[in-house]
């Protein structure tokens, strides 16, 4: 299978949902790719939006190693923000760009299996690839799945999954090419310069120095895991940068290339 024929798994981060122009540009890039016959799956976060909604509901946010501690009482707010508002806002932008899309979550169509990651984190999920049939059905129609990172475990419990980890699992599930789009141009070094290509050794060094931290640490870990698994680089780039989006449509490498060993 040629690279460009692999489904493209595009993960978009939270801040995008607060930027109407960013959403419009991204969807127009996605529409251009879909019109060329490229399958695209969009996986999204919405961390900023969750923060906002928790605060509005008088709840506090606590993170451990970049992951949100999610007690049971926060689940309705988190699910509402991610599987509800964020997912539907993106769907709206996709429809406006002429894309036929299916808004869904990790809990749909048995695409993944899920379990609680670690009791300390509360209702935070760890997911594993399971069955690609539902996604493949949508892609075969030429439609674009828009997937929120809410999973459901065997007991029917709703779990909050970090969206970079969700995108990594979807990429593995469909053997897709993963591009993690954030609000920064890629992984930056200690001087704020873009790192063109990043190996595991280099990333470990920068993480130890605290240069790569918070959300970027989780993102780079997810990218390294998929790069290793696929034997091909995973890109960390920016949805803000119109030039990067144009290059992505042309199939060019953008942002930081996170390399397999
Ligand atoms: N070395 C780094 N390079 C770039 N961003 C970094 C780095 N270390 C930490 N960050 C932070 O990580 C953020 C991106 O992660 P995150 O907020 O989880 O993004 P998203 O919501 O797009 O997934 C950046 O906005 C930046 O604040
Ligand atoms: C467990 C966990 O941390 N879940 C994330 C899910 C959303 C997310 O990952 O959003 P971004 O991609 O915008 O960072 C959260 O609650 O913020």
Automatic annotation (TrEMBL):
Major location category of this protein: cytoplasm
EC number: 2.7.2.8
Gene3D superfamilies, per database record: Acetylglutamate kinase-like
Keywords: Amino-acid biosynthesis, Arginine biosynthesis, ATP-binding, Cytoplasm, Kinase, Nucleotide-binding, Transferase
Gene source species: Shewanella colwelliana
A GO term, aspect molecular function: kinase activity
Site (described: Transition state stabilizer): 11, 219
Name this protein carries in UniProt: Acetylglutamate kinase
Gene for this chain: argB
């Amino acid at each position: 299978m040629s690279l460009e024929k692999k489904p493209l798994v595009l993960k978009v981060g939270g801040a995008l949902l607060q930027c109407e122009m960013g959403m419009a540009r991204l969807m127009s890039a996605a529409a251009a790719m879909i019109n060329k016959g490229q399958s695209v799956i969009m996986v999204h976060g919405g961390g900023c939006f969750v923060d906002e909604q928790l605060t509005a509901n008088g709840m506090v946010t606590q993170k451990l190693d970049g992951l949100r501690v999610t007690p049971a009482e926060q689940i309705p707010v988190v699910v509402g923000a991610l599987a509800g508002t964020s997912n539907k806002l993106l769907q709206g932008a996709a429809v406006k760009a002429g894309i036929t899309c299916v808004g869904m979550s990790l809990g749909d169509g048995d695409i993944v299996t899920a379990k609680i990651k670690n009791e300390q984190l509360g209702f935070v999920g760890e997911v594993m690839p399971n069955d690609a049939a539902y996604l493949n059905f949508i892609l075969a129609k030429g439609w674009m799945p828009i997937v929120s990172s809410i999973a459901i475990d065997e007991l029917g419990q709703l779990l909050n999954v970090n969206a970079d980890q969700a995108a990594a699992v979807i990429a593995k599930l469909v053997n897709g090419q993963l591009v993690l789009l954030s609000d920064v141009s890629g992984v930056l070094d200690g001087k704020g310069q873009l790192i063109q290509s990043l190996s595991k050794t280099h990333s470990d060094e920068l993480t130890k120095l605290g240069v790569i931290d918070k959300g970027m640490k989780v993102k780079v870990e997810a990218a390294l895991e998929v790069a290793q698994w696929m034997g091909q680089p995973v890109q960390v780039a920016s949805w803000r940068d119109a030039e990067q989006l144009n290059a992505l449509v042309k199939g060019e490498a953008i942002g930081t290339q996170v390399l397999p060993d």
